[in-house]
């Protein structure tokens, strides 16, 4: 006879069993080792008569066929099960499954973790808060411009007739002549801003420079062009590089500055000047731009000939207009699109209709027009 405790344990054991996947349930094909030649046939190992599920069913059937359980013994068994950690864990999981019925399952493909984020040690704010502070810094920068630099464009003593004229005069007063970059400023950086809106391309920084502007001699400039490779444009002699692998623009700009410094230092290295390496320009497509032919240019003789031809055409049109044979396009178009006026019918008298000859009636179908019998 099985006790109530054993029956409860068997029930929990059956409830906590995992459903086997089809791959694990399907029996594996057992490979037989090839043995030496023998006259007896191969024999497989006999399969087990009962698996775990059949054994559990037999035990539960024995419990059901047993005697009735005493209520006191049943209460004592429940008290022992409550102290069992496995029973408590199973009851919690069952309660959680029952209470979560109808809830939306979490999306397993949703990626909420931050990329390349350091471990959070409770001594800093999260990356989302850093992005919000960066947005505040940009707003404050424009606020400082509006508070300190924009008032310089206005003058209280001057009164202009209109806002446009005032703006033009202020621009003329505060305009400064263009000054090209000096030899100490050979690098030109380009940034991208979306005015407070977050965009993945906002961190990208592009640098442009020409090897001629660098403090290098002719041989070092040629070596620098060879080191740049596909980033050098042979038509404009300008190198262009970009970086967006870091999170902030300042980091990408610093990386590009260090990279240009390394390239210049490598170009100044006299160990190997790459004199035996030809300058590769296969990455660039040279486009031929057609020029206006010299034969088609307007010369003085051609200009005089065109003026004479126009004068003769005007005289001919004037002569046709006097004769009334000139075709005016506007009048022809107006006549074409003008509505057609209905013609008034003249009434005919009776004697006019009687004087007209009547046409012969058409022949019948069974008679030929040329063979009519009398």
From TrEMBL:
GO terms for biological process: mitochondrial translation. It holds the Pfam family MRP-S28. One of its GO terms (molecular function) is structural constituent of ribosome. Residues 36-48 have a biased composition (Polar residues). GO terms for cellular component: mitochondrial small ribosomal subunit. Residues 83-95 have a biased composition (Basic and acidic residues). The lineage of its organism: Eukaryota, Fungi, Dikarya, Ascomycota, Pezizomycotina. Residues 363-374 have a biased composition (Basic residues). Residues 177-296 form the Small ribosomal subunit protein mS35 mitochondrial conserved domain. It comes from Xylaria arbuscula. Residues 36-55, 83-102, 355-374 are annotated as: Disordered. It comes from the Eukaryota. InterPro entries: Ribosomal_mS35_mit, Ribosomal_mS35_mt. This is Small ribosomal subunit protein mS35 mitochondrial conserved domain-containing protein.
């Amino acid at each position: 006879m099985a006790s109530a405790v054993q029956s409860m344990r068997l029930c929990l054991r059956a409830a906590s069993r995992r459903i086997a996947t089809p791959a694990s349930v399907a029996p594996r094909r057992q490979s037989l080792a090839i043995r030496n030649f023998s006259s007896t046939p191969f024999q497989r190992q006999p399969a087990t008569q009962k698996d775990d599920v059949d054994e559990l069913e037999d035990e539960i059937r024995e419990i059901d066929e047993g005697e009735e359980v005493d209520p006191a013994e049943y209460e004592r068994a429940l008290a022992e099960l409550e102290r069992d950690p496995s029973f408590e864990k199973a009851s919690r999981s069952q309660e959680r499954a029952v209470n979560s019925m109808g809830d939306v399952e979490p999306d397993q493909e949703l990626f909420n973790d931050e990329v390349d984020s350091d471990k959070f040690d409770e001594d800093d704010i999260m990356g989302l808060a850093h992005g919000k502070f960066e947005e505040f810094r940009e707003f404050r920068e424009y606020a400082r411009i509006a508070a300190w630099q924009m008032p310089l464009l206005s003058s209280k003593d001057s009164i202009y007739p209109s806002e446009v004229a005032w703006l033009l005069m202020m621009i003329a007063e505060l305009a400064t002549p263009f000054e090209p970059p000096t030899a100490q400023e050979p690098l030109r950086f380009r940034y991208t801003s979306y005015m407070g809106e977050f965009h993945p391309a906002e961190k990208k920084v592009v640098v442009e420079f020409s090897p001629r502007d660098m403090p290098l001699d002719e041989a070092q400039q040629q070596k620098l062009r060879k080191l740049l490779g596909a980033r050098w444009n042979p038509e404009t002699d300008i190198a262009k590089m970009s970086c967006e692998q870091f999170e902030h623009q300042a980091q990408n700009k610093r990386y590009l500055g260090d990279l240009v410094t390394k390239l210049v230092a490598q170009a100044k290295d006299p160990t190997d000047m790459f004199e035996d390496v030809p300058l590769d320009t296969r990455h660039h497509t040279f486009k031929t731009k057609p020029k206006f032919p010299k034969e088609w240019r307007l010369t003085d003789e051609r200009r005089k000939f065109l003026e004479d031809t126009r004068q003769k055409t005007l005289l001919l049109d004037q002569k046709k207009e006097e004769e009334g044979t000139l075709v005016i396009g506007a009048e022809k178009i107006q006549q074409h699109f003008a509505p057609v006026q209905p013609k008034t019918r003249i009434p005919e008298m009776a004697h006019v209709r009687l004087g007209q000859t009547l046409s012969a009636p058409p022949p019948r179908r069974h008679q030929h027009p040329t063979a009519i019998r009398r």
